[in-house]
């Protein structure tokens, strides 16, 4: 009587493990790239939401007769807005801070800056985790900026935000964006 062995030989198992190792070596770096891109996309979405919150607040203030007379960057630090902003009929911070928080509840987690030009928010640089920076309009930051040799691969959050604002200023100098390239970054970053 013949008995048949059931199972895999050692050679077959080694071949399967080798194939899995090769596939993992190919897929892991590309998966990390996808994760990086999704985090940047999320940061861009946050920046867009902040821009819409500022825009809505400025529109509401304008409708109530408060005319904003300001052009420059407003620093956002965990929901606190800081800039020397004046309104024709009142204190800007007493209107902007609660207004932006009303339209975007997660503003308390945001660090960055918004560029205000008269009664409009034309650019935003924002992060919620300190690692990935998002912009409005998008396109100033992409995955290659976070690779080991990229501009945003290391440094503090403030350094990263300053680098992105510099990119925006460079684009503005080429008249591709309505940001005055002579205006400095938020004062506490200079």
Describe the structure in brief.
With 190 residues, the chain is α+β, with helices and mostly antiparallel strands. 44% of the residues lie in helices and 17% in strands.
Shape: elongated
Q: What is the overall pLDDT average?
A: 80
Q: Radius of gyration over alpha carbons? A: 24 Å
User: Ranges with pLDDT <50 over ≥5 residues?
Assistant: none
Tell me the span between the first and last alpha carbons: 88 Å
Structure notes:
The chain is about 45% helix and about 15% strand. Helix 1 crosses helix 2. It has three helices and seven strands. The protein is of the alpha+beta class and about 190 residues long.
Keywords:
5-stranded antiparallel sheet, 7 strands, alpha+beta, two-stranded antiparallel sheet, 190 residues, elongated
């Amino acid at each position: 009587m013949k008995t048949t062995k059931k199972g895999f030989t050692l050679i077959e198992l080694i071949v399967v493990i080798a194939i899995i190792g090769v596939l993992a070596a190919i897929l892991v770096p590309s998966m990390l790239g996808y994760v990086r891109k999704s985090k940047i996309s999320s940061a861009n979405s946050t920046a867009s939401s902040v821009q819409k919150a500022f825009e809505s607040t400025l529109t509401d203030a304008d409708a109530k007769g408060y005319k904003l007379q300001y052009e420059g960057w407003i620093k956002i630090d965990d929901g606190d807005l800081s800039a020397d902003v004046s309104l024709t009929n009142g204190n800007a911070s007493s209107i902007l801070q609660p207004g932006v928080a009303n339209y975007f509840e997660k503003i308390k987690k945001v660090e960055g800056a918004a560029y205000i030009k008269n009664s409009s928010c034309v650019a935003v640089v924002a992060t919620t985790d300190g690692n990935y920076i998002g912009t409005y309009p998008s396109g100033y930051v992409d995955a290659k900026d976070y690779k080991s040799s990229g501009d945003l691969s290391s440094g503090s959050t403030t350094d990263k935000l300053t680098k992105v604002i510099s990119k925006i200023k460079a684009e503005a100098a080429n008249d591709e964006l309505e940001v005055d390239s002579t205006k400095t970054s938020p004062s506490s970053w200079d």
